[in-house]
Structures are given as C-alpha cells and as structure tokens.
C-alpha cells in the first residue's frame, strides 16, 4: 500500500497533483492530502486507490483516535477527511464534531460514509457540520468527484467553482444525488442550472427548455465553468428525478451520446440535404425522420438541430449519423462548391494575348476595347517587344538565318491598331469657353478638340 508512517499508511498519488480537478489558480501545483478513516480493508483499498489515481495523497487510518493522533503532528492538516460514520470507539459523528471544535481543523471538509443506514443520520451529519453524508454501498467515482470539488476549499465558501473539462457535469450530478445535501449547479453565463434536494433533482432549465429534457441537454451540451452552491432549496420544482432514474435512464443514454461524438458527425458541422439521394431512400425512411431532415438547411449546425428537434438527443444523433452515411445529409460546403457559378472571362489581357488580337486579320471581328495589363501598356507605348514575341510573330519560330536577314532588312511600319487605354471623359467647359485640361478626348494624332465647343 505504499510507505508507512507511525500512525497511517500513505498511498502516493498515481498521477500529477494537477489531476485533483481544482482551478489552476487555486492549486498551484500542490499535492492535496486526504485522510481516509476506514476500518474495512476492502474500502481502504478501493477508496484509497481511487483517490490516489485522481491525484491525491491518501493517509489511511482505521479509527478516529488514530486520525486525531495523525493530525496532531506539526505538519499541516489534510485538505479533506473521508470517514466512516459507524466507527468503533469514537464514531464518525463525534469525530466530525471534534474536528469542528478545533481551530486548526475547523475548516477541513468532511465527508461521512455510513455502512448502517438510519433515518436520522443525514440530519445528524448536518448538525455536526459534515459537508455531506453518503450511505454505503458507495461508488468510488462519487467520492472522488466530491473530493475534487471540495478538497482545499473552505466550507464557508458560498459556491464551489469547477470546470466541466476536469469534473464533468454528469459525474458531479451523480455524486450530489448520492449525498444528502441540497443546492444547485449553475452554468456560467446563466445558460442553465439544475437544483437538487435530498437525493432528487427538483428542477432544471437549459436554453429555454425546462424539466427532464433540459436536465438531459444540460448534461450533454453544457460545458465550461460552473458553480455548485449548497443551502436550502425551498422552491417547488417541476420534476422529481432520483439517483436510480439518473443511473438507469439518463447516464446510459449520455454514454452512448459521448461515444457517438467520438466517431460521428461533429456537432459544429453544417449539413444540408442531397435531394437526389433523399428520393432514392424516401420509401425506406420512417415518417418521423422527415421532420428531422427538414431542419437541415445548410445554416444550422448539428448541435442546433439536436436542440431544436423533438426527439431524445442520442436517438436524433444516431439518426443523423445514419442519414449522413447514406449520403442524404452532406456538408453544406460541398454543395456551395458544386453550385458556385463559373468564373467570368477576364477583360484584362496579357501582353501576348493583346498582341495576337491586334495582328489578327479578321474582317468580321468587331473592334472591341482591349484592356491590357499595366506592364503590357508600358511595353506597347515604348515600342519594345520581347524576343519571344518577335519569334512568334508569324506563327512559327524563325531560324538563325531568317533572324539575321530580318535584322538587315528594314522592318515594315507597324500596323496602327487603336488601343483604348482610358475611357474618354466628357470635356468640362469652363467660364469663357475654355476646356479644362486633362479631359480632352484622345485621337490617333493626339488631343483632339471638337470645333463645336
């Protein structure tokens, strides 16, 4: 079980101390210590190993007296105490009351576990100042979730803040229902909340929904930072959902949903309908599926469709995955690419294209304006031509003898072809009949001024 001190068996953490699940601002890389007061060897092993795997250092003692002796050492007290209520000698309730009476241990969170269920135990645990009371048999994951939530925190804190990436909402919801406290879990930015009281979920809201559907969607889609506050939850809720219902109905569907997210269509994907494929498979599709297909318009993501449709989330997600595999649903980006109009022909020609157009002897060709790139305009204006253009002027490359003969002979005067470089503007007539400079229409021989002003 690890190294032993004179009073307790120490189980070293099996992972990084940061795995304890608290806010990075509060843990600062510290290793949180848990005092486990448990006489049953089986629970010593199960709970001790589970807490150590979660990143806690665990000190295991069999009795309350041994725990008090361990905590009397000069070292700092533990960050959390998990104790059996039915202990030989000093029981867990007296032990918790003793801790609360000492200044040094008054603020240490205490979880009481009870192997003997009595109707008054939950009220007695609250009276002696225990943070929670869980009857056995208890799940190790529930104890670990409450330890992650409360270790290193003061019981006087109004709310315990956590993050869904380190402590998922489904885990903390099950752990809270396993205990006997009351309170509520509120998502940051007020996206939703659920209230619990004495092992029941009594109310839940999420993005406009309320009731069981809101609770399911909060656990499935809720994320980020949330706060758990404890206190009397007196308002009359809209539902009563106990731990068996959560364990048998909600959590299995949520596990299927999470597994499907790993291999299925991403929730952020925008899908649209391939109507040709829809017609092929229409006869084999259930009528209810058509209402789901209609929600995919290429603008909504899968997450938005799941929140809007009337089916249970996991059933709708499975149907969407099946429709996607059949090709009925397809990424909207593919349709946008397929339906994009062809590019219009460019009006701007390269220098070579412009030269070919000017030298074409086509009587039927209409004289259309030619728009040439800036570099081509400069080359044409200066009379410069590239070697490649000279060689290709007759349609076929010239050999060396022909090139020499062409250089000796006087080149014929180039055929003047009008090239419109700028659009002519209407001249502006100033006072006195003068025409504003720079706005004169261009003719073949330069600026041309109409005789009629």
UniProtKB/TrEMBL annotation:
Listed A to Z, the keywords are: DNA-binding, Phosphoprotein, Transcription, Transcription regulation, Two-component regulatory system
Region annotation (Disordered) maps to: 432-453
Q: Which InterPro entries match?
A: CheY-like_superfamily, Sig_transdc_resp-reg_receiver, WalR-like
Task: Enumerate the spans annotated as Response regulatory domain.
Answer: 33-151
PANTHER family reported for this sequence: REGULATOR OF RPOS (PTHR48111), TWO-COMPONENT RESPONSE REGULATOR ORR33 (PTHR48111:SF1)
Query: What is the designated name of this protein?
Result: Response regulator
What is the native source organism of this protein? Answer: Stigmatella ashevillensis
